Fold this sequence. Notes:
This protein is 9% helix and 47% strand. The chain is built from 1 helix and 11 strands, in the order H-E-E-E-E-E-E-E-E-E-E-E. Strands 1-2-4-5-7-8-10-11 form an 8-stranded antiparallel beta barrel. It is globular.
Amino acid sequence: MRMLKRVALVATVAALGCGGGDDDDNGNPTGPGAGGATNGTFTVVVNGTTWAATGQVTVSRQSNNFIGIAGSGFAGNTAYSIVVGIGNATGPGTHNLNVFGGGDGSSVIVGSATTGYATSLQGGSGTLTITSLTSNRIVGTFSGTAVPSSGGAANLVMTSGQFDVTF
């Protein structure tokens, strides 16, 4: 359990650095309309409010078939950094997001200004489906419940999660 909390913390901190910035000297956003992701789409409904990554979505593909997708953005007025970690990502297929329920190490980790949440913590749940995976693009969907890492915060319910990003 202690290791899972450390992994969640490291992944959340890493995701905080991938928010989109404005590098246009005229103050105009450099991404698509409404400040969306610049290398695809990464969205999810968090507790009934739509979240979308802005700027560059970071994708890391490791030699051991682990893929990490990280982005930051807002759901309403709340800033979240979201990391999707997919274990044994060798192609299309469905992954259990609960390591306690026999999952393959796949999880969704969410960081906010007040706490961190993860599907990989005891009581978390969810599924993720990769629909397409190539050498430079991943497409899929996810949903689940992320449990707070500490304190009395309520769970985060994630629905309609989608990613279609190039790397």
